[in-house]
Amino acid sequence: MDATVRAQEEGDTSRSLYKHMLPFIFSTLSSCLLLLRCAPIALNTSQPIGMASYGSASWVTLALLLFITLAATANGDELSASYYEKTCPNVQHVVRSVMASSVAAQPRMAPAVLRLFFHDCFINGCDASVLLDATPFSPSEKDVKPNASLTGYTVIDDIKSALEHDCPATVSCADVIALASRDAVALLGGPTWSVPLSRKDSRFAANPESTKKGLPSPHDNLGELVAMFSRLNLDARDMTALSGADTVGMADCMHYSDRVYGADRDEEIDPYFAQTMKQSCQGPSEAENMCYTLRTFEPSFTTGHGAQLRGKPASKHCGCPYYRNLIARRGLLTSYQTLYGGGGPQDNLVEMYSADGEAFARDFAKTMVKMGNVPPPMGMPVEVRLKCSTANY
Ligand code: HEM
What are the pLDDT digits (tens) for 286-306? Predict the structure, then answer.
């Protein structure tokens, strides 16, 4: 068996063990804690607290508390675009206006938020687990290598604060990321869509090993990407459409220097493009410090960092530049270029999106909704976090 596949399967097993054990441990612990706090009241007694002193009533309380705790776990309820209609009617407006002012001040925040959503949904579903800070008991997904370059957390915090002011303890951080990334794409000149809502926030982050293995690598080949996305029920077409998100934002040179200097060296790469890559990335040793700007949905957007390669806009008529680049052998990362050149239906998809901007916009919007519907694992304790970086208690 291929080593990567085996590693992924081992990761799946450890994650699934983790997924199944954690809710149980959490439920038991929190029920015991609640029991310690509430039992004297429930029993109407002033006796000191100690398990041995509880009568049968305490076990009834324990069972009840266990039930209540388990009820607050992920259950895969249907999402709905009108979920906050009565409880927080202004939610869409609040998210849009905070996003608009943040992106106006710092254009980099639009791609950053979009990438946050992808990295959230790929690990334990769209549950805002990527936002949780490390605690003495639990590491953070933020600190695992593929996530170390994520930004945009402050924008999500700003949106959440505004929402807590308007409708306290109502809108989940997971819904905030989903709405904000939709607005990010619109602000970049891309398509828009209606976001189904009612996600809940997981109380726990995934373990570092699962986080690392759950995210696609810039060195992945087509088969590895298809396998990675299929774990979330996203097929090759979904994967190809979603990859168009990499039209915007930036990539660090360390992710592509191998394509011009090292192990992933691509002899068929467009020579002019290879030259530009080399210029933006002076050599593998400097990889950490250099940045390369990817293309944008709209040509007017610039980040002001590093070397820039401006693209033509993704318009209805001329299609998406990301896919045109692949056909011209100008894929920045190995994982981009692998989407084209092998022949068959995969090449047809890339050719279609490169020529038909409407087809790309339609599929991208549809697939963002599909990716956004991935729930946290069954039984994961969930809540509406009051602060996105920490669980409620
Ligand atoms: C197909 C597999 C994918 C791979 C291997 C991949 C890999 C990468 C890498 C290596 C970077 C540069 C990160 C850095 O240098 O800090 C990046 C940037 C980015 N990716 Fe992807 N990506 C993939 C799919 C996606 C998807 C599905 C989305 C969203 C739906 C997405 C959104 C973005 C965005 C917006 C950026 C720019 C972030 C910024 O400028 O802050 N990517 N991606």
Answer: 544 445 555 444 333 233 233
In a domain, 360, yes or no: yes
What residues are annotated to the active site? 119
How many whole angstroms separate alpha carbon 247 and alpha carbon 296? 5
10 close to 41: Cβ distance less than 8 angstroms: no
Binding residues for substrate: 216
Q: Which domain holds residue 332?
A: 222-372
- The answer to whether residues 96 and 113 touch, using CB atoms and an 8 Å cutoff, is no
CB of 114 within 6 A of ligand 1: the answer is: yes
pTM: predicted TM-score of the whole model, two decimal places: 0.81
Structural domains counted in the chain: 3
Indicate if ligand 1 lies below 6 Å from the C-beta of 228.
no
Are residues 31 and 100 both part of a single domain? no
* Strand 250-252 relative to strand 382-383, pairing: unpaired
Tens digit of each residue's pLDDT (9 = 90 or more) over 241-296: 999 998 888 888 888 888 888 777 888 899 988 888 888 777 665 544 445 555 44
- How would you classify the pairing of strands 382-383 and 291-293? unpaired
